[in-house]
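Table S2 (continued). Query chain:
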Amino acid sequence: MIGYIRVLNRVLTEATKAREKLNDAERSLNLAQRDLEQVRKELSDIFDPTRYGAQGEWKKLQNLCLKKDTGG
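Corresponding output:
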């Protein structure tokens, strides 16, 4: 009977480890899918004429602060 309990405990421990690995993998997959969706959105925005121009020509200026002194 004691041997049976030890085997059962070992199986439960391995099952718990496997469940944790599965949960970690699912979390990683969800993060990767969210990142992929964000990249796809950014890519579609690059070629949106209302965002960065028809050819994405203004994308290089994203997050760039331009300053020009005029007057004197």
